[in-house]
Structures are given as structure tokens and as C-alpha cells.
Structure to design on (877 residues):
RNA sequence: GGACGCAUAGCUCAGCGGGAGAGCAUCCGCCUUACAAGCGGAGGGUCGCAGGUUCGAACCCUGCUGCGUCCA
């Protein structure tokens, strides 16, 4: 057979894989050729992932890199499986973050947003976006994201803004969006309300001050960590059953420093066992106090402005809240009102998740979404299995949240965002304006000043990006989406809200079939990465140093469901080594004429090694498939790594060398097996490491691209167990000889004459050439004198290997080697006897387990006898 | 304060009822004609502690300790 091998490809393959030189051009070719462009009109089954939109201000961090690797792998595999695969990109407008960035820029020019005015400021933000926004999109290209760039979306785009307005109107009309005066989480720095989950609690050091209110008989001690709020107290509350204070309920006591008299009220929500059992009530500055105030019709006295500066008349007016606190305490101390002070006092303090400023509960008029009915539906969709959460342990957390949800504060006192489509009339009219409606005009009409929470528009992402509210082809084709992949840290912020909004907007159809939640990235010692710790690893540094494939493989390989991932530079280097290994193995295969141009010959024309590696590849396909379906990225990477390195490279390539050396039909058959197995591996690896596999696969097959290659499927050929057993025997024999050689200090390259007996019984007579090649043994010649020997127990029987080491052997080393084997066998025997001598075990354990132990025992006994005999035969060392 | 998760080799993690595993790190020997980003070999663990269930527990149950996360 002298047919043409695809030589043009083999010679094209450089000696080394140089990702930096190849990746960008390769990526651009993929995009230009439209491989990632989804066709809504095809008749393929749909597969769709919407990208969790990164902030327009953001840049790529490891968490993104992980999530993108996952999404890309899922999408690429489906594409290869023949799905119409759409991975839809975009960004969100990040209200507070973006406004902050542009305000900082303005501050550099000595301006505030108020100097520009709302309209000009918003223009300015758009200008900023055009110039600096979306850096992350370019970084995504470097990662190799197989994304449909033609469908890129932005939450502030006209289409998505229209979706926001439409859904707001629907919520308003259904009575699910309402305006109310409530205590909300307020950031005195960002000057806006926040939703509950945008507040992060931490245990901070503060002070607990006990203050005596009233005098003499009518005095009550209350404790507080926020002394300055006492200026706004309008009552003291005690538990109605509390005997200590029963006589005071209904009376009034003097509020120090203010001269005001405030009532003592009885409220069941007061915990009589905490502190003195009496609490001060500041309805305008505390959510619990607000509730008490409502129940007892107490006035709400606001004593701070939006920046946290005291407004109450008196000596504290104009002080910041943190200056006012010690000042108030000092003044109270002077009056002899301080009963106790505990400092430092650890307690939970809320911080703005954006800027870390201590959140100030503030009474204000805000818009809310009534979430109860939406949350119920969102919970049910998961409960009844229409949407599956992976890993399932996280579903419980999801339920806990959606089942105990407070109404969602959606208005933000910002300028950058979707302005609330509510117009107020001169006579108190409130009109909600839909997307195709004209807002009312005329004297006294004005639009609500606030914008909507960014998460409100993000919540619409799975359908707004597909064209909703229009009934587009994309929407019909790709909704509900297949998988939503994101970190579990935004399960509530985003996933739960998309579930609520999707079910609400799309007639009860949930937005995803599967929700995959990956873990968080940590440093090598398991600590959270943060700028302050200085342990952040920049993914771009990895892309530069090791290539995109290595970075991706590292992340995918660490992605065990439900657990966080520790990362270190060595991990990436290891992945780079794997890519190099794959490269070199492919180069070897190609240099030796590996090909997919011919089909693999019929089984009976193949060797045990061929059949074994083909069967293993077959098993690998099913294993990888199953692991993909279960989102087990770490395990599927491990399986691919192990097969490629430990089986294909370490054994089959070595065995193939022997077969190719035979020449003729054997060599030709080997070339097709080499080629087909490599082809399978490259296709299986492509979703995770797209670049190197593309170059190798096109070189191997001459095909246009592996991006569109067909995903491997099982052929259904049954495993050849005889071939597998023989190869395992060869592996064991070779390994034992190598071990002997190493123990005896024989150089790896040194060829040693050897005589093998018992190979027929062990059923490996056909593999002597391979054994000799892999163990570096040569045929015994006439002068052969066995100076050393070892026995290897194989599945079929014992093999004796006699070696001519042309000299003496290291008796001490050999004795040590045998002693070790003996000790292992004795331990095995003891273990087996321990079980078999236990009547309860023999009686109750399943027969197959008992039989297995018996077989193991027999083997151990035989080993002991054999090794003991050899030790006895050994000369004194 | 409530809930959950995790404790397995030096490090990071698999395994979750019947012979303790991987990657990295370590030690020894090698530039053996694809690969020193490599090859061959080796060492290393009372599977957090204490009970219990079971013929049998790293694995199931209870308690404890330590660490972490989420919610208040």
C-alpha cells in the first residue's frame, strides 16, 4: 500500500505548539467563517445559553474565565452534536458602578453630574461607554469564546429598554409594582436606595451604650449601638408580659438632650431576655422600629439627611453620623445618663455591596415589586422539575430564598439606567406609560426621577435579548434557553429574579432547562481572591504565559460541582504541559503516517493493542458524554487527561512503534488506528481546549475545522476483554521488569538480554516483541548466561524473566525488593484470613464477595511461597 | 442567633458500604530515535476526634472540635 498520506499537513506541523502566535488568527477565522452564528431557521434542535452579562465597566477575572470555559465547552459540544447552538453575548449597564466611574471622571474636571444636568450627564455616560466600555468583550475573544457576536446585546439598548418598560407596565397594571414609604437600605455615599441583597453584613467592632431615659421611679435603661439615633426616638418599647416595666406602659418618660417626652409602649416583638428588655424606638431610622411605630401610631422623626448628616435642631446639627455618635454619648455622659458602655462591641453591620459604606436605614418613598406570586412560581418551576439546578444541594438554598422573600425595592436615585415610566399629574394622578404610549403632557405633569435597579433589566435577559416583547424567530426558537451557567454567589441576585421574570413574562415557561452553578475561585491556599489580600490572579497573565487552552483546561479541571476551586500558577503550567504532550503525541503520530483517510480495518485484522485502545476510546466517549450531561467538568477533564497521557501516549504509542516497525499491512493498520483514536481524542477535547485541537485536527484529517466536526459517538462494538487482559498483562510485566531494572541500578537506556518463559501460559506469547521493546530487553544469544531473574504473576500464569546483566546482581537491593513484595503479600493474606475466619462474614456477606476474598487469599498464599523460595535461594548479601 | 457545607498523602482535591486514589510537590536514575514543558522507578495517609449501626465503615447515624459560606 503506497497511497498518499496527508503529507502536506504533517510537514506543516511545527515542532512546538506556540499558542501566542496562533490563537488570535485562528479565532478570527472561526468568527469570519460564521461558525458561531446561529441560524434561527435551521431544522436542527436548538441549544441556547445566554451569557451572564458582565458589567460594561468590568474586565475579565478568573470567575468569568471559569464560567466562560464552562459555557463554551457546553456550546461547542452541542454544536458538534448537530444542535443549532447559540451562545448569546452582551453586557449590562451597571447603574451605580458606571455612574460612579463617570462621576469620578467628571470630578477630575472639577464638575459634578449636577453641573451637567441629567440629559447631558447621560450623554456623557454613553460617550464613556463608546470609548472605554466593554473591554471584557475583547478579552472574551482571547479566551476563545465561541459566541455569536452578531447577537450582542446591552441592557440599555432600545430593544431591551422597551422590554423593561413593557414588563414594568405589566407589573404596574397587575398591581405588582407599587410605590410606598418604607425604611430602605440607603447608601449615604451612592445616595440611593439598595435592595436587601445589595447589603453585605459583617461582624464589626462598635460600641454598646446603655442609656437611662426618664428619672427616678419612671426610668428605663435602653442599650444601643447607634446612640446618635436617640435624637429621633419617639417611644420606648417593652414586652407586654414583662413585669419589670408593666407599671410604666402608657406613661411618658423624658428623652434626654431633647427635652421631649416619649411614651412607653408594649409590643410583643420586643425580646424581654435581651439586654434590659427595653428598646428605644426610632421609626425613621430602623426597620424594626418602623414596624413598631406603625403598630402604635408613633410619629417618625427624621434626624439625618441623605448623606448621614444630623439635621435635628441642636448642638449636633451638621455633624456626620459617625461624629455625632461620640458627641451624643459624651453629652449623655455629662448628664449622668450613661449606665454602661461596652467597647469594642462586635455586632452585625450592613455595608453597601458597591462601595462598602455603612448602610443607613432610611425612610423614603420607593418603588417595589410585590414578589410573593412571582416567587411562588419561581419555586414551583424547580420543585416540579421544569428547571433543574446543578448541583442539587443548591436547590435548597434557592427554595429558602424564594420562599421567604421581602418585596424588592427597585427604584434607584441615579441618572444612569431605565427611568421609571411613571408620570405624576398636578392632581395626584399616577400614570404608567407603556412603550408605544405617549406620556401625558401639560402643566404639572412630570416623570418619576428615579431609575430601575440594574438587576431589574438583567432579570429579563433570557428573553429580552431574544427580542421580547416582539414575537421574534429567535424567541420562538431559543426560549426557553438550555443552560444558565453562573457562580452560586449570584443565585439570588440574578438567577432567582430571571426565574421570576421569565415565568411572569413568558406565560409560565421558565427561562432555563438547567441551571449550572459553579464554585468560586480561590487562591492556592483556599482563600478568597481580593485586591486587598493581593492574591488575585489575572487570567490574562495566564493567557499570555500558557495560552488560552492551558488556562481553560486548568479551570475546567478544577470545576467540581458545589465546591470552590483553589488555583495556583503550577496548575496552569501542568495544563500547558498537557497541551504540549498532546502536541508531541500528535506530531509523532503524523510523522509516522497516522491517518483518518482510510477506515479502521476489520477487527480480526487488528492486534490486541489496536483493539484495546479502540475499546478504551469507545469507553472514553461514553464516559465523557455522561459526565458532560451531569456538568462534571473536573471529572471529564480527568478522564481525557488520563486516557491521552497514561494510555494513548504511555502505552499505545509505544506499542504502535513495534507494530509500525513490522511494516506492511500491520504498519498500515496501525497508522489508521493511531489516526482514528487521535481523531476521537481531539474531538472530545475540543470543547475544553479549542485552539490546539483545531490545529492538530486539521493537520491530521485535512478537514476544514474541528469546530464543526461531528461529536464522537459510540459504535456499539463490544469490548474485547481478551485483548484487554493481554494488554494489562503486558503492562504489568513491563512495569515489573522496569522496577527490577531500576532497583538493580540498570540504566534506562541499557539493553539487557533476557529469556522469558511461561509466556504461553500467561497468554502473551504474541507480545514478546512489545515486551522486549518497552522493557529494553534483547533476545538471548548463544553466550546468554542468566545472572538474575524475576517472576511476575500475571492473570494467566507466572512468567519467569531471566536476565543476563553480564555480572553480579545487587543482592541487597534484590533482597529489599523481595522483602517488600513479601510483606505486601503477607498483609494481604492476613486481611483475607481475618475475613474468612469470621463466621459472620462467610455467613452474611454476599457469595461473590466471599469468593473474591478466597481468590485473593489463594493468590497471596502462592505469592508468599514463591517469594520466600526466591529469598531462600538468594546468596547471602 | 438560624441554616448549610467541608475536614482523606506536604499542597489542592476525587472516592461516599466490601482491596486507600489523582494532579502538583518530594526522592532516585535517565538528553532511551514524539516529547527534559519529558521518560522510567520510588517514598509518603491510625481517611479531624469520640461513640453507634453493620459480617464489614474513609463512606451510614449521633455527639464533639476546627474551618468556611449563606441568611438574620
Amino acid at each position: 500500500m503506497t497511497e498518499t498520506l496527508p503529507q502536506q499537513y504533517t510537514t506543516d506541523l511545527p515542532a512546538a505548539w506556540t499558542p501566542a502566535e496562533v490563537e488570535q488568527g485562528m479565532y478570527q477565522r472561526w468568527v469570519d467563517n460564521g461558525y458561531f452564528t446561529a441560524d434561527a431557521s435551521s431544522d436542527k434542535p436548538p441549544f441556547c445559553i445566554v451569557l451572564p452579562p458582565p458589567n460594561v465597566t468590568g474586565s475579565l477575572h478568573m470567575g468569568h474565565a471559569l464560567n466562560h470555559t464552562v459555557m463554551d465547552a457546553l456550546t461547542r459540544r452541542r454544536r458538534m452534536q448537530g444542535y443549532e447552538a447559540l451562545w448569546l453575548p452582551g453586557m449590562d449597564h451597571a447603574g451605580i458602578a458606571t455612574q460612579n466611574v463617570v462621576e469620578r471622571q467628571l470630578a477630575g474636571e472639577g464638575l459634578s453630574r449636577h453641573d451637567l444636568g441629567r440629559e447631558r450627564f447621560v450623554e456623557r455616560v454613553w460617550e464613556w461607554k463608546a470609548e472605554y466600555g466593554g473591554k471584557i468583550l475583547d478579552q472574551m475573544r482571547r479566551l476563545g469564546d465561541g459566541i455569536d457576536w452578531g447577537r450582542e446585546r446591552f441592557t440599555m439598548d432600545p430593544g431591551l429598554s422597551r422590554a423593561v418598560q413593557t414588563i414594568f407596565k405589566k407589573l404596574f397594571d397587575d398591581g405588582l409594582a407599587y410605590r410606598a414609604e418604607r425604611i430602605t437600605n440607603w447608601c449615604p455615599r451612592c445616595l440611593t436606595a439598595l435592595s436587601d441583597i445589595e447589603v453585605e453584613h459583617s461582624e464589626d467592632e462598635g460600641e454598646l451604650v446603655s442609656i437611662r431615659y426618664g428619672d427616678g421611679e419612671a426610668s428605663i435603661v435602653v442599650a444601643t449601638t447607634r446612640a446618635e439615633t436617640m435624637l429621633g426616638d419617639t417611644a420606648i418599647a417593652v414586652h407586654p408580659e414583662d413585669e419589670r416595666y408593666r407599671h410604666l406602659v402608657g406613661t411618658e418618660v423624658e428623652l434626654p438632650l431633647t427635652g421631649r417626652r416619649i411614651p412607653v409602649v408594649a409590643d410583643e416583638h420586643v425580646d424581654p431576655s435581651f439586654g434590659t428588655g427595653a428598646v428605644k424606638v426610632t421609626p425613621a431610622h430602623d426597620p424594626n422600629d418602623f414596624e413598631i411605630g406603625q403598630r402604635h401610631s408613633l410619629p417618625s422623626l427624621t434626624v439625618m439627611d441623605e448623606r448621614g448628616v444630623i439635621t435635628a435642631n441642636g448642638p449636633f446639627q451638621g455633624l456626620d453620623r459617625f461624629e455625632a455618635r461620640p458627641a451624643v454619648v459624651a453629652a449623655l455622659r455629662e448628664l449622668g445618663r450613661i449606665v454602661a458602655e461596652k467597647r469594642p462591641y462586635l455586632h452585625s453591620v450592613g455595608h453597601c455591596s458597591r462601595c462598602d459604606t455603612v448602610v443607613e436605614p432610611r425612610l423614603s418613598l420607593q418603588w417595589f415589586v410585590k414578589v410573593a406570586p412571582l416567587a411562588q412560581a419561581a419555586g414551583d418551576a424547580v420543585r416540579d422539575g421544569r428547571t433543574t439546578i446543578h448541583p442539587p444541594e443548591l436547590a435548597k438554598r434557592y427554595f429558602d430564598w424564594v420562599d421567604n422573600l421581602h418585596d424588592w425595592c427597585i427604584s434607584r436615585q441615579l441618572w444612569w439606567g431605565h427611568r421609571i415610566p411613571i408620570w405624576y399629574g398636578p392632581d395626584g394622578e399616577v400614570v404608567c406609560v407603556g412603550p408605544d404610549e405617549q406620556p401625558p403632557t401639560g402643566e404639572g405633569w412630570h416623570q418619576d426621577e428615579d431609575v430601575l435597579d440594574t438587576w431589574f433589566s438583567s432579570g429579563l435577559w433570557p428573553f429580552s435579548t431574544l427580542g421580547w416583547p416582539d414575537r421574534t424567530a429567535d424567541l420562538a426558537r431559543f426560549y426557553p434557553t438550555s443552560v444558565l451557567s453562573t457562580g452560586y454567589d449570584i443565585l439570588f441576585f440574578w438567577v432567582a429574579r430571571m426565574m421570576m421574570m421569565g415565568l411572569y413574562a413568558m406565560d409560565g415557561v421558565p427561562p432555563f432547562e438547567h441551571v449550572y452553578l459553579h464554585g468560586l475561585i480561590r487562591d492556592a491556599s483556599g482563600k478568597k481572591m481580593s485586591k486587598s489580600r493581593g492574591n488575585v490572579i489575572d487570567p490574562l497573565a495566564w493567557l499570555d504565559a500558557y495560552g488560552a487552552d492551558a488556562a481553560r483546561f486548568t479551570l475546567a479541571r478544577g470545576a467540581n460541582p458545589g465546591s470552590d476551586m483553589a488555583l495556583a500558577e503550577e496548575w496552569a503550567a501542568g495544563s500547558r504541559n498537557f497541551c504540549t504532550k498532546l502536541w508531541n503525541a500528535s506530531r509523532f503520530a503524523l510523522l509516522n503516517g497516522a491517518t483518518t483517510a482510510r477506515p479502521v480495518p476489520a477487527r480480526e485484522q487488528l492486534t490486541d493493542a489496536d483493539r484495546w485502545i479502540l475499546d478504551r476510546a469507545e469507553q472514553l466517549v461514553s464516559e465523557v458524554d455522561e459526565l458532560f450531561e451531569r456538568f462534571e467538568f473536573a471529572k471529564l477533564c480527568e478522564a481525557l487527561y488520563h486516557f491521552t497521557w497514561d494510555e494513548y501516549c504511555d502505552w499505545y504509542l509505544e506499542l504502535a512503534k513495534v507494530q509500525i516497525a513490522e511494516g506492511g499491512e500491520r504498519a498500515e493498520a496501525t497508522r489508521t488506528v493511531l489516526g482514528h483514536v487521535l481523531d476521537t481524542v481531539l474531538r472530545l477535547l475540543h470543547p475544553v481546549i479549542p485552539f490546539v485541537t483545531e490545529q492538530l485536527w486539521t493537520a491530521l484529517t485535512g478537514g476544514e475545522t474541528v469546530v464543526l466536526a461531528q461529536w464522537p459517538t459510540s459504535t456499539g462494538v463490544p469490548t474485547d476483554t481478551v485483548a484487554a487482559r493481554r494488554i494489562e498483562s503486558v503492562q504489568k510485566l513491563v512495569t515489573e521488569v522496569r522496577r527490577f531494572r531500576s532497583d538493580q541500578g540498570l540504566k534506562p537506556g541499557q539493553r539487557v538480554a533476557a529469556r522469558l518463559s511461561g509466556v504461553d501460559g500467561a497468554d502473551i506469547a504474541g507480545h514478546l516483541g512489545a515486551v522486549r521493546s518497552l522493557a529494553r530487553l534483547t533476545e538471548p544469544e548463544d553466550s546468554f548466561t542468566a545472572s538474575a531473574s524475576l517472576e511476575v504473576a500475571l492473570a494467566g500464569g507466572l512468567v519467569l524473566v531471566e536476565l543476563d546483566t553480564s555480572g553480579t546482581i545487587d543482592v541487597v537491593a534484590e533482597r529489599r525488593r523481595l522483602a517488600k513484595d513479601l510483606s505486601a503479600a503477607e498483609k494481604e493474606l492476613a486481611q483475607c484470613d481475618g475475613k474468612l475466619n469470621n463466621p459472620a462474614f462467610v455467613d452474611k456477606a454476599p457469595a461473590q464477595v466471599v469468593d473474591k476474598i478466597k481468590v485473593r487469599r489463594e493468590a497471596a498464599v502462592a505469592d508468599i511461597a514463591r517469594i520466600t523460595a526466591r529469598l531462600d535461594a538468594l546468596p547471602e548479601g
Confidence is low (pLDDT under 50) at residues 1-11 of chain A. The first helix of chain A runs from residue 7 to 12. The CA atoms of residues 169 and 434 of chain A lie 6 Å apart.
